[in-house]
Design goal:
Largest sheet: 18 strands, mixed
Number of domains: 2
Structural class: alpha+beta
Pathway: Amino-acid biosynthesis; L-lysine biosynthesis via DAP pathway; DL-2,6-diaminopimelate from LL-2,6-diaminopimelate: step 1/1
GO cellular component, one term: cytosol
Bound molecules: 2,6-diaminopimelic acid
Number of helices: 4
Oligomer: single chain
Helix content: 10-25%
Strand content: 35-45%
Subunit structure: Homodimer.
Subcellular location: Cytoplasm
Order of helices and strands: EEHEEEHEEEEEEHEEEHEEEE
EC number: 5.1.1.7
CATH topology of the largest domain: Diaminopimelate Epimerase, Chain A, domain 1
């Protein structure tokens, strides 16, 4: 099969985008893993699929996300920005604001005058069951952090937040020296995350500036993670360490997160979305 695709990235988090608005999407997990393979395929962190909405569904598109391990997931914030850039640049919509349905949310995506994209990510989910996390008798400490005893006797204190997908957030003094590729898999190995977890490492510089690295579920460390950055800023605001608008430096670029601090209010993710190249792959 000859499959046309578009390669994109949002702050270095890279994607293969597939247009399934006219032909139904039917790739197997193995074909998705091939697409995502940086040696034997195109290579990306996630595959994004653009679909028309189901009949009668009051949204403009359906937005599906697959990690490069082939598993379908609930959300991808950097991908949402690229989704809007894609559908507007290819004439699939004439709107500058579109609403898209993911597996568990409706997101509103808006082109900004400066060329960035603003995503209404919906409100954070702040109860551990929403990740899911099986807390059992464990309770958070007074800071709202969960004391996790991991394999190999390693202990971490993490904020547990869902943005529709699961996140564990650790506060660190310096992201560059944080043991991301060691601790990330160790947190992910915790059986109390039955559907896995994305592991974020947040360095707070001022009340309005931070740095982040994320070891993602199903993709490993990426150069940026939109939902992970949202979850981390929510954790920082809830801890009283951040203001409602924060500029966050990820390894692949800069993101802006806005959240009032009210649990029912949406988190907003603002950042770039870049088209890199078009291609065709034989699958
Ligand atoms: N690895 C994530 C999906 C991609 C999220 C990330 N790339 C973003 O920009 O939000 C998960 O399994 O939940």
């Amino acid at each position: 099969m000859q499959l046309p695709f578009t390669k994109m990235h949002g702050a270095g988090n890279d994607f293969v985008v597939l247009d399934a608005t006219t032909t139904p999407f039917d790739l197997s997990p193995e074909q998705l893993r091939r697409l995502g393979d940086r040696r034997f395929g195109v290579g990306c962190d996630q595959i994004l699929v653009v679909e028309r909405p189901a009949p009668g569904d009051d949204v403009d598109f359906r937005y599906r996300i697959f990690n490069n391990d082939g598993d379908e997931v609930e959300h991808c914030g950097n991908g949402a920005r690229c989704f809007l850039r894609y559908v507007t640049s290819r004439g699939l919509t004439a709107q500058s604001v579109v609403r898209v349905r993911t597996v568990n949310a409706v997101l509103e995506l808006a082109l900004m005058p400066d060329g960035r994209v603003r995503v209404d990510m919906g409100p954070p989910r702040l109860v551990p069951e929403s990740l899911p996390f099986e807390a059992g008798s464990l309770r958070p400490d007074p800071r709202g952090l969960w004391p996790l005893q991991l394999v190999d006797g390693v202990h971490v204190d993490a904020a547990l937040i869902s943005m529709g997908n699961p996140h564990a957030v650790l506060f660190v003094d310096d992201v560059d020296s944080a043991p991301v590729t060691l601790l990330g898999p160790q947190v992910q190995a915790d059986p109390r995350f039955p559907q896995g977890v994305n592991v974020g490492f947040l360095q707070i510089q001022t009340r309005a500036r931070a740095r982040i690295r994320v070891y993602e579920r199903g993709a490993g460390e990426t150069l940026a993670c939109g939902t992970g950055t949202c979850a981390a800023v929510v954790a920082g605001i809830r801890a009283g360490l951040l203001d409602p608008a924060v500029e966050v430096q990820a390894r692949g670029g800069d993101l802006r997160i806005e959240w009032s601090g009210q649990a029912t209010d949406s988190v907003f993710l603002i950042g770039p979305a870049t088209l890199v190249f078009e291609g065709t792959i034989s699958l």
